[in-house]
């Protein structure tokens, strides 16, 4: 079994990487990686009320997703989407749990509706008007591979493009000590069933048990392992370097997700 | 889609453990709801609690997964011989050829809520015995289930609020169609917690009396908990006449509001249309609709409009949430079980607690159970964030 897709657009938001073009320079070895706090774009696509309510996690997902859509020259309003996040919105979770542990358990209604794992997908729908199916997944540290697998399966089943957005944001203390995700990060890929004028690479996705790839650069490897969404960096490195080759991405032991790419 | 066989299924809710008490209660229009006395919750709401969840002991090797949600998962898996059927399927297909695709909305968050009451007085730290990954994290229930059965195939949790465990059927069917797996353990588990009880209360969506779906005087939901599972396999050429098949799935997004449905039910209608198209059926082919029917004024009005617009007013339909409560991320799988019981045993469940039909919703809404042949059913599951999923099930004949 392998699933063939084309990667038509990429979005990246991560500590020290504000876009795919910045990430590509670093991953291709043309620029040094300088870690710095993740800079999140304002979600101008949201109506003002939702913009106020959007969390850092939602802004992260929307930012990377829109970059991938624009990069591919696609129309967000018609795209099916797959969202995958390892942990949800930690600040919101902390605030709700603090309230529930206090004498006054009145949870804020906005906090409650923002607590669903599919909050980013909901805001994406409001921002883009897309009524296409939207999948929202969690596989703890395996979320990038689980999301890519689901997106590739959807492309193969429906023969239509699918936007994949894998995103995480930091947890505050005291949860941080239990789940040390330090900052926001996201990778978005616009996947298509057929090669188009914007296609960047052809990718074949399959399950295997080749040991997972790591980054050679220590700071990039720290980024890959610190933020679950960044488990896709070895794949992005192949694309940034214009190389044909394979990357085994972290999935659920004993499996890894094998992605073989060839530049278009 | 190519029809898939639900070779085994089970459901555990406040109606009881497994299909037999579920069938009896649905057929008799009984409700399992009672006034909330869960944990330290002091709210004037009604709940559908599964008895005995606290007494469930996880196998010692899986102790790090211990939380209410995984206890309920284990309780549910052990009903109706379902766990044995999974083990047999693992033997038949191989541990890498089975997927585990489960839905939940709140996972083991109760464990985090309880840990927040035990923070270190000086440092604020959570207690050492609290394990985030295998209890609170949304993936926890799939990780637990995969490990319980020694399955090594793909696994994932779908978490789209109250459509979660309907969407797992669609996701599994796609993976099977691509040849990635030969069988799938699908389902949903959601358990009572303070976040949903106080959260829905803050949105003024909970009722002070047992929920009354589609009633003219409906006042909101009653939160329940539940575990529903199905084993999906490819249909063989010869099937028992009362074998139940998944015939189609349809998904959509409202693109409207985070916690309110589209007032005309546009997203809901799209999901139903896509499910019918996926099953290659028309509205006239459906004998019964298991409605999302949460009993909030907005949901039932919007869903009712969408159903009437697509099906007209003569297809019998009901919500089973007056019986089970709204089991949130488990509702899709629990209501697949309700549809399977209707198909197997030839009855359309009446709506528990509903007394006076809403004259503004022109549907053939069932106050009493009706008996007769049921060949195909549709079930709706809609969630916060505007996530919609409809599934079509049918008898094999």
* Fraction of residues in helix of chain B: 25-40%
Protein chain pair with the most extensive contact, residues per chain: A-B, 65 and 68 residues
Question: What is the ordering of alpha helices and beta strands of chain B?
Answer: EEHEEHHEHHHEHEHEEEHEHEHHEEEEE
What is the CATH topology of chain A? Peroxisomal Thiolase, Chain A, domain 1
Note the total helix count of chain A: 9
Our estimate of the beta-strand percent of chain B is: 15-25%
Give the name of the CATH architecture of chain B.
3-Layer(aba) Sandwich
**CA-based shape of chain B:** globular
Q: Largest sheet of chain A, described in full?
A: 8 strands, mixed
Could you name the CATH topology of chain B?
A: Peroxisomal Thiolase, Chain A, domain 1
Q: For the CA atoms, what is the radius of gyration of chain A?
A: 18 Å
The top level CATH class name of chain A: Alpha Beta
| Content-based structural category of chain B | alpha/beta
Could you give me the name of the CATH homologous superfamily of chain A?
Answer: Thiolase/Chalcone synthase
How does this structure look, described?
The complex is a heterodimer of chains A (264) and B (397). By secondary structure, chain A is an alpha+beta fold. Helix content of chain A is 34%, strand content 22%. Chain A has a single domain, classed as Peroxisomal Thiolase, Chain A, domain 1 (3-Layer(aba) Sandwich). In chain A, strands 3-2-4-5-1-6-8-7 form an eight-stranded mixed β-sheet, sandwiched between helices. In chain A, helix 1 (20-27) packs across helix 9 and helix 3 crosses helix 6 (119-128). Chain A is globular and about 60 Å long. The two termini of chain A are 22 Å apart. The mean pLDDT of chain A is 96. Chain B has one domain (4-395): Thiolase/Chalcone synthase (Peroxisomal Thiolase, Chain A, domain 1, 3-Layer(aba) Sandwich), CATH 3.40.47.10. Helix content of chain B is 31%, strand content 21%. Chain B has twelve helices and 17 strands. Chain B starts with a strand and ends with a strand. The mean pLDDT of chain B is 97. At the A-B interface, helix 4, helix 5, helix 6, strand 3 and helix 7 of A face helix 4, helix 6, strand 6, helix 7 and helix 8 of B. Strand 3 of chain A pairs antiparallel with strand 6 of chain B, so a sheet runs across the interface.
């Amino acid at each position: 079994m392998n699933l063939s897709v084309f990667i038509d657009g990429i979005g990246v938001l991560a500590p020290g990487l504000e876009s795919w073009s910045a990430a590509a320079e670093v991953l291709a070895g043309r620029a040094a990686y300088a870690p710095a706090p993740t800079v999140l774009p304002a979600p101008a696509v949201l109506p003002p009320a939702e913009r106020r309510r959007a969390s850092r996690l939602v802004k992260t997902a929307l930012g990377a997703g829109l970059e991938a859509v624009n990069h591919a020259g696609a129309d967000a309003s018609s795209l099916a989407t797959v969202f995958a996040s390892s942990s949800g919105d930690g600040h919101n979770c902390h605030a709700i749990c603090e309230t529930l542990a206090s004498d006054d358990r009145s949870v804020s209604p906005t906090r409650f509706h923002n607590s669903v794992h599919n909050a980013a997908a909901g805001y994406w729908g409001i921002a883009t008007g897309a009524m296409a199916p939207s999948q929202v997944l969690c596989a703890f540290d395996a979320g990038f591979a689980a999301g890519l697998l689901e997106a590739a399966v959807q492309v193969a089943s429906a023969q239509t493009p699918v936007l994949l957005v894998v995103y995480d944001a930091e947890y505050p203390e005291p949860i941080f000590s239990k789940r040390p995700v330090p900052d926001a990060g996201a990778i978005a890929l616009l996947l298509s069933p057929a090669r188009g004028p914007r296609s960047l690479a052809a990718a074949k996705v399959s399950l295997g048990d080749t040991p997972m790839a790591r980054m050679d650069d220590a700071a990039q490897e720290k980024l890959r392992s610190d933020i679950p969404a960044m488990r896709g960096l070895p794949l992005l490195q192949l694309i940034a370097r214009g190389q044909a080759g394979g990357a085994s991405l972290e999935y659920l032991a004993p499996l890894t997700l094998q992605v073989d790419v060839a530049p278009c | 889609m190519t029809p898939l066989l639900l070779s085994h299924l089970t459901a555990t809710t406040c109606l009881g453990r497994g299909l037999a008490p579920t069938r009896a209660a649905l057929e008799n229009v009984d409700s399992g709801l009672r006034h909330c006395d869960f944990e330290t919750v002091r709210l004037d709401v009604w709940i559908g609690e599964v008895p005995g969840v606290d007494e469930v002991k996880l196998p010692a090797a899986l102790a790090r997964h211990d939380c209410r949600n995984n206890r309920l998962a284990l309780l549910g898996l052990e009903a109706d011989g379902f766990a044995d059927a999974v083990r047999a399927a693992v033997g038949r297909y191989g541990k890498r050829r089975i997927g585990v695709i489960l839905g939940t909305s709140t996972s083991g968050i109760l464990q985090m809520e309880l840990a927040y009451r035990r923070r270190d007085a000086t440092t604020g730290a959570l207690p050492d015995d609290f394990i985030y990954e295998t209890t609170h994290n949304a993936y926890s229930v799939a990780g637990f289930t995969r490990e319980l059965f020694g399955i090594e195939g793909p696994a994932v949790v779908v978490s789209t609020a109250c459509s979660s465990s309907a969407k797992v059927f669609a996701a599994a069917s796609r993976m099977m169609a691509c040849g990635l797996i030969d069988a799938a353990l699908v389902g949903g588990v959601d358990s009572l917690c303070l976040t949903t009880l106080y959260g829905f209360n803050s949105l003024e969506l909970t009722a002070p009396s047992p929920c009354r779906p589609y009633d003219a005087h409906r006042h909101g939901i009653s939160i329940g908990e539940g575990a529903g599972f199905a084993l999906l396999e490819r249909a063989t050429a010869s099937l028992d006449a009362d074998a139940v098949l998944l015939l189609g799935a349809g998904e959509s997004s409202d693109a409207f509001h985070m916690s309110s449905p589209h007032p005309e039910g546009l997203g809901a209608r799209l999901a139903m249309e896509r499910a019918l198209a996926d099953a290659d059926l028309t509205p006239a082919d459906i004998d019964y609709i298991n409605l999302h029917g949460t009993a909030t004024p907005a949901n039932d009005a919007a869903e009712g409009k969408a159903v009437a617009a697509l099906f007209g007013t003569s297809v019998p339909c009901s919500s089973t949430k007056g019986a089970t409560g709204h089991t949130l991320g488990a509702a899709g799988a629990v209501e697949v079980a309700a549809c399977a019981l209707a198909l197997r045993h030839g009855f359309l469940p009446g709506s528990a607690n509903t007394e006076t039909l809403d004259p503004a919703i022109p549907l053939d809404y069932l106050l009493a159970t009706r008996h007769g042949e049921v060949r195909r059913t549709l079930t709706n599951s809609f969630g916060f964030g505007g996530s919609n999923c409809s599934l079509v099930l049918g008898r094999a004949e």
